[in-house]
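Kindly review this record before class:
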Amino acid sequence: MGNKTHYFPLIKPCQNPRQLKQQKKEKDMAMIPQKTALVVSAHSADFVWRAGGAIALHVEQGYQVHIVCLSYGERGESAKLWRKGDMTEERVKASRHTEAQAAANVLGASIEFFDMGDYPLRADKESLFRLADVFRRIQPHFVLTHSLADPYNYDHPLAANLAQEARIIAQAEGYRPGEAIIGAPPVYCFEPHQPEQCGWKPDVLLDITSVWEKKYAAIQCMAGQEHLWEYYTRVALQRGVQAKRNIGIASTKTIIHGEGYQSLFPRVTEDLS
């Protein structure tokens, strides 16, 4: 009789039930699309002062956060750079680009620059469609941008209105038919420099205590506006006090730093708690 080849079933090593549970969790997580957020900033430093904590916090929660800087703030928001002398707009832009990119890296976000100019910031139809395309590409779960009014800086409300209109266009089936439209991501207006004059009233207080050091490291990247570092530290402390007060005096949660936001649209929910 000839030699016969015998085949034996492959015996897998026993796996710990905890390992199996973890593997299933990882597999399920891999099937869930990553959550995303979009930040529309008029100038290259606005997202740092006003939303750096929210960006860092949500990145740590697993969000992919993308920032659009409509301008570098080369004319109106770079006084320290201009005072050095022998500066041009292109040199100032290059410096602001480097600062903003470094800050975004610290916060863990991606960033792109539209270079639309500032003082004044103006948007044509091409810029509007370009931003709508970003909405389509990112498919944000929420959007952060400026307040609707700011008598001290007209670039800020223009950015807010541009973001809102781009959001609406990105929802339209007839805009670039065949592309995936976006849903209805909530829009939150971050805090303007002088909220009382801007009609801005926060209805969301975000606890950023756990990521404050990261936000402050991003703030320190903005060397062209060093005079604002201390101011926005005080703002964060003030909002932290208010956040602590609003969760009740009996709460043992420690809140030191916060950010304020004003929502533009009603919250839809089945649970009011």
